[in-house]
Design goal:
2 copies of one chain form a homodimer.
Chain A lengths: L5 H11 L4 H8 L3 H8 L7 H10 L4 H17 L5 H21 L1
Helix pairs in contact in A: 2-3, 4-5
Chain A binds a DNA duplex (30 and 30 nucleotides) through α3.
Chain lengths: 104, 104
DNA sequence: CTATTTTTGACAAAAATTGTCAACAGGCGA
DNA sequence: TCGCCTGTTGACAATTTTTGTCAAAAATAG
């Protein structure tokens, strides 16, 4: 059960769609070099780009967004021995916050 | 069940210890203005500072660190409707990563 | 070999973070 | 009131991080 990064996944999707970096980069209006680096995890992705890519590749946007966000979280607190505890606390806070939002 | 920020908590602890910003800032070797802003959430805390403060206030370091980390997470992905899903995926990844670390 | 695609690194531009400082406001006791 | 202490605020520069652009090199396909 090895973990695939979102970069790997995006590359796979691009290859499945047989699109060169050049074309996708044009659609995103960014430089090829940047897209190449994003796929290899050398440059950060943004939520907007991930979601545009999901559309381009006709792939589930939610799945990719979740993967993107979770990777961001791991990047922020990963390798901390307290990471799991922190995640649980964060979960509580988010539940609380979304409850608040519903009430408004 | 309202949520207390780590800044609020740090301020409370400081007041309980009856220490002025001036003294604590000196111990941390930072400017008073910065510490003031950190307590009010206007400037970012760092893990290092949080842990130094825990020592100064003789308070559980782990508790404060977890609070610090969880706030960071919420800041990064909070208010996303996919936030909870992302947290669960992140949890899986972290469990996987820490398992790897143990094996080495 | 040639053409296309991808990678890499250097560099500048832009943005975000951080540190420093001085002025200001409020409380409090002399 | 005055002086002193504490905390707040905003402006500004310094620093660090992120981002965009480009060209050359490397890899791949035909």
């Amino acid at each position: 059960m090895s973990k695939e990064t979102i970069g790997d996944k995006l590359r796979k999707l691009r290859e499945e769609n047989e699109l060169p970096l050049r074309k996708v980069a044009a659609l995103l209006d960014i430089d090829v070099a940047i897209l190449s680096k994003m796929e290899r995890g050398e440059r950060r992705l943004t939520k907007e780009i991930v979601q545009k890519l999901a559309k381009i590749y006709k792939h589930d946007t939610e799945e990719l967004t979740v993967l993107y966000l979770s990777e961001k979280v791991v990047y922020e607190i990963g390798n901390e021995d307290l990471a799991l505890k922190a995640l649980h606390v964060a979960e509580e806070q988010i539940k609380y916050l979304t409850k608040l939002n519903k009430k408004k």
